[in-house]
Design goal:
The protein is an all-alpha fold and about 375 residues long. It has 13 helices and four strands. It folds into two domains: about 50 residues, no CATH class; about 290 residues, no CATH class.
């Protein structure tokens, strides 16, 4: 039996194999097995077919590039900070593309009115109506975000490889990946949206039923399933930006490659598996984001509540802020500080995951075929 590119031929006699060899249709690297045996060997190991060819040593694989190697935690941290510092100006340039429209959207987005708890009448929550300017800013954020995210990957990749490219060249490369990033983003965030809001809608339906015991049981059951599904999505989408931009792969192939890469080498120690490394880095970054957001917002909250003595005054102040058509100076200052903090932190995550991406590829043996894609 002869197997070529996964397709089996035969059974054939030894004389036929010799004819195929003379015609160039059978080479020593092809896989063969004898009828009745399960083990496949190379055709070059058949002395009756290739007896006049001396066995050759297997080719020595080319060494993997320096950037495409496994790294320790200390090396990952050092590389992340090196990428962040060397690419800081470019990270800021590409980050502003989304930070500015996002900040404007935050300022003009209509506020949801708080229920009047004092009167005891809550009523349904009113869905705000978006103005044309608000819709325009939202569209800009959606269209520019793939460009900014792709540019972050290219900046981090260039610094990691010690490659010099102009800001314009990186911008053009990001434009070239815009459609791929947009498509992959729709797949990723669409999946999150589906597995969050569909179960949430079912939970709301059960909560309004007349059976409290059944409602409580179904809320716990569906809520647990929703958390489980979103956790699986987080793992499967761990490297989706890197596989889309640095792969480079089309959207569905990038998502599939991200899943396979994240779940590779399951036999390795936990802290050396791509899944645990990516989840740990993302968790640390998210915790840092939450802590710094609180630290940035807290002084403005204290300044706002100066002179507030009781909960009723606090609720009155919150109601006044919710009913206000335009933000006051403290709110604007707090939003500016938060936007700047997010702009500064976002490149850290991009830099860390580019390093983790190459670390995962090296550990899973996927170091060939896509290392020079962005030259």
């Amino acid at each position: 039996m002869v197997r070529v590119q996964g397709i089996e031929y035969g059974p054939v006699a030894t004389e036929v194999l010799r004819e195929w060899r003379s015609e160039g249709r059978l080479i020593p690297a092809n896989e063969v097995r004898r009828v009745g045996e399960e083990r496949w060997i190379q055709a070059g190991e058949l002395p009756e077919v290739f007896s006049d060819i001396e066995p050759s040593l297997p080719p020595i694989p080319a060494p993997a590039p320096e950037h495409a190697r496994a790294r320790s935690w200390r090396e990952i941290t050092a590389e992340t900070f090196r990428i962040y510092l060397r690419g800081f100006i470019r990270f800021m340039c590409f980050g502003v593309l989304t930070s500015v429209p996002m900040f404007i959207l935050q300022l003009i987005f209509p506020k949801i009115p708080l229920p009047d708890l004092k009167s005891g009448i809550t009523g349904p929550i009113q869905v705000p109506t978006l103005s044309p300017l608000c819709l325009a800013m939202l569209a800009i954020v959606i269209l520019i975000w793939p460009l900014s995210a792709a540019a972050f990957q290219f900046v981090a990749d260039d610094v990691l490889k010690n490659r010099r490219r102009s800001l314009g060249a990186q911008f053009l490369a990001a434009i070239h990946c815009w459609m791929q990033m947009l498509g992959a983003g729709l797949v990723v965030y669409g999946s999150y949206f589906f597995w969050f809001f569909v179960p949430l809608s079912v939970i709301v339906g059960f909560s309004s039923s007349g059976n409290p015991l059944l409602a409580s049981f179904m809320i716990l059951l569906i809520g647990g399933f929703m958390v489980y599904m979103n956790a699986r999505l987080f793992i499967n989408f761990l490297f989706w930006q890197q596989t889309t931009v640095l792969g480079p792969l089309p959207p569905f192939a990038a998502v599939r490659e991200s899943k396979e890469l994240a779940r590779s080498i399951p036999e390795a120690p936990r802290l050396e598996r791509p899944l645990f490394r990516g989840a740990l880095v993302a968790s640390i970054w998210l915790l840092l984001l939450l802590v710094l957001t609180f630290a940035v917002q807290f002084p403005f909250v204290l300044a706002r509540f100066v002179g507030i003595d009781d909960p009723e005054q606090a609720m009155a102040l919150m109601q006044k802020l919710a009913d206000s058509k335009t933000p006051d100076s403290l709110m604007i200052a707090a939003d500016v500080a938060t936007a700047i903090m997010n702009l500064l932190l976002r490149p850290f995550l991009a830099a860390a995951f580019v390093v983790l991406y190459y670390d995962a590829r090296a550990r899973s043996g996927r170091t060939n075929g896509a290392e020079n894609h962005s030259e």
